Protein 1
Amino acid sequence: MIDVIDIDDRVTLDDYAEYVQLRPSVEKLRKEASRLMKPLDGRTLWMVNSTAEGGGVAEMMPKLVALLRELGLDARWAVIQPEAQRFFDLTKHLHNLIHDSGPSRLGSSDRDLYEAVSERAADALEPHLSEDDLLAVHDPQPLGMGAILKERLGLPTLWRCHIGLDHDTDATRAGWNFLKPYAETYDRTVFSVQNYVPDFLSKKAEVIPPAIDPLSHKNRYLSTHKVSGVLCNAGLCQESRHVLTGDFEHQAERLQNGGDFGPATTPGDLGLLFRPAVTQVSRWDRLKGWVPLLRGFKRMKERHYAANGSGGNGAFVRSDEKHPERHHRRLNLVRLVLAGPDPASIQDDPEGQAAFEQVCQQWKELPPAVQRDVAVLALPMDSRKQNALMVNALQRCATVVAQNSLQEGFGLTATEAMWKGCPVMGTRAVGLRTQIRDGTDGRLVQHADDPDEVAETLDAMLNQGRERQVWSRNARRRVADKYLVFSQAERWLEALDACYEACGTGERTGAEAVA
Ligand code: UDP
């Protein structure tokens, strides 16, 4: 039921400080940490979530825990793994409700199930804990467990909620009503965006934006040769004779005509190193806006072909085009790359499977002229490092990285692309518009579910070479200023201090010291 995850992270603060650009952030973190660590000295922090891989939380956890350890806190990462699939269906339903999606009805059997599983998870984690520890649980899955452990042990508890919406609806109210009795027992809570904080938690909430690790395999700099090497090793590129490194054990696959997955270079090379590409990498989740993105791309291509004859050989000149012939050729060549985790890795996620199958179905229904320019890729999850390198290389090969989310808690995929200096097309989903200032760091579509608008925005972005450079430079700077792990770790230490204080543990320790 509980797995304590081993973290093997050898990149130290000294390593980051070797980079002149990162050094000031590292120095600031060290300086602040020496003050903030005092109340936490000698304590153990337990970070608990519900998955060790896939999604933004699992992505951030190893680095955050490793950094806190290096700063002197005994931080550990545990994952609850309830056997009951119905529990994950319920927590997925809650997740959707908080994002205003799905039926609002929750019954007493849902609460019974949630409480029974939370009780068992609490039984499993309790032997690992002492009253001096601090418990930080992430998202709705372990929330109930934390509330039970708070009651049993009285230890300081913090709830880190990674999801939210900036307005109330019947669905969000239903979700929050369900979670409220557990959430309000916590000493402190943390949200990604101020507007996500529900009223009943406003007095005990703070905001910490998610963050990325600039030296991780997902985000580190890759030279042109390294990008092409990774693509070849991963089976995403045909040429491999002159590549330095050997093939990855598990290769990326591509949806084939017959409906099965096969080699990514069949029926022909993807052209990732040469052709313009619009690329989205995400989990297979309906709210990621895969289908409207695909429809928007189709519309863009069809509009182009309609104006030029099929094959796009006519003269289609828009009044705002700067280099019409080049743009014309770009629209002929551009591909849409939709990449997500190998579906075998989400077998226990029926909604993810359904979202994935829907993308495949939409692809099968595309007219052949468009279908050949859309690649649906399954990225193997067997090796965290190799998966991260594939995502890194794919994003770096994109002319535009799309994140067409209908709702988005934050959207680390956008942060990752922005850090790499890839022009990003996001949406008005709160997490994305928090990161991307429209027209400054990238572009935002107003209605992610409107294929016409998606088509217009993509077409315009592809045609705006100069602006893409400006956006990508600004985006990189924005991430450097706001969304790197150093400021995140500092904010966590502040939040943990506040949590001890709110729990009264800090005062007790003070009294003990006087006694
Ligand atoms: N991701 C990945 N491999 C994939 C698909 C996604 O590593 O095949 C990662 C992606 O790079 C990002 C995370 O999963 O780091 C998704 O986080 P995000 O905040 O974008 O969305 P979430 O999944 O948490 O809703």
Note: Residues 311-317, 506-515 have pLDDT under 50 and may be disordered.
Protein 2
Amino acid sequence: MALAAGAERVAAEFEYTKEDVNRGVQEFIRQMDEGLQKQGATMSQIPTYVTAVPNGTEKGLYMAVDLGGTNFRVCSIQLHGNSTFSLTQSKVKIPQQLMVAKTSHELFAFLAKQIELFLKTHHNDHYVTHVERRKSYVGFTEEQVFSLGFTFSFPVQQSGINKGTLIRWTKGFDIHDTVGKDVCALLQKEIDALHLPVRVAALVNDTVGTLMARSYTSPGKTGTLLGAIFGTGTNGAYVEKLERITKLKKMGGVSAFEGETGDMIINTEWGSFDNKMSVLPNTPYDRALDKESNNPGIQMFEKRVSGMFLGEILRRALLTLVEDKSVPLFSDEHSNQNDFHSTTTIHEASPLWRQWGLDTSFLSITSGDNSAGLKVTRQTLENDYEVSAPSAEDAEAVRLIASAIGKRAARLSAVAIAAVVISTGKLEKPADIATSNNASLEVNEDNIVDIGVDGSLVEFYPNFEDYIREALREIPQIGPQGEKRIRIGIAKDGSGVGAALIALVADQGRKSEFH
Ligand code: BGC
């Protein structure tokens, strides 16, 4: 088979049709409802105890840390109260061995150490004064302590604004003794061991932070409906009606919120949508990836959508073609046909032979490659992936398959976004656009549905949002008119600012308890 035909055959396996999208949306809404009604459903639908989104007038100096994927970030955020903020931050890559450490202590002590370093570097006056004061006082007084929002982007069963136990690790983390523990208490213990003037005031999922940050900074007075991450992992948090979260009554928690906004932010944990695989697409490459992952059968939606996995899907698809003798991908004509490694131009030491060896950023590079003869793709293959002298045809095949994987991810992302928009009924008012033929309806502040997004895929994958929008238009309950009313905005550094905002809300709650 010619190379182009072989590549087209594999790319076609990733097609996700209009019918698939619509079936996906229906099932997504069903699983969202199920999660609101009972504990332990596939989609966790976790109540966050956050009942309002900010309006931009909030003020103060807060700290935030973010553990969620590849990096650990520490920041301090000055909220100016006029929808703007200043942020100082430091970032370190999380050492691989700590992601799979033997004990929680190893990871959390590392995190506390980074907070100490940050304070010494960026708030040294504050730090030194407090250390000095500590010599004469026992502990710190309220005013001397930074309130910190802890963005911890894994599924957590929250039981209060700064309390929550880890349900399961995702995204390659695996530390057995953390599961079932309160992650805020684990961090506070290590902070206290270093005598830092920091109180873990709020536990925040990155999606909730994104939602809060977008709401603080977004133009106009419309509150944001959904905060979504399409990065190393994927997930969304949205504003739900308290009365629809029926499991909260069973958990005995609803009365505390009566008389408030009538809303609560729900962390969907949609990465685990359809773990039972009733509607998700399933190519041989998806199956193999899952089987050899450290959490088979879990996070099945995430494994088809997010950055941690797309590179690995592509790697497996490419190797299947390389092994197919009838398709000349990365093939060495002058080779010894009896020795498999010498029939291919992929060097023996290439990361392409290793699990997780192909980085998802490569999908963005090749899908967006407009250079003559796909020079950029060929150079990247050669320099980063040790493929010798890849041809333009090789690069074309790689680009075709990579684009198919990226497009499928974007269309699946649209399923999640659409399900939230439809199930919350946000498009039904003020005019039912989906059933209206009024092509000239004006999109304005009153009928916009605002969505905040963050993560490497939405930010860097070429046309990710366009693909999402294309799929949204194919859903009858949204249609071209509804799609226009959906405003998607990047909430850069959302988790930092959002965590600060939640720490502020938590502080206000504490103060009103005391006064
Ligand atoms: C986690 C979520 C998180 C998402 C995005 C998923 O693996 O389960 O809690 O929001 O990644 O970071």
Note: Residues 431-436 have pLDDT under 50 and may be disordered.
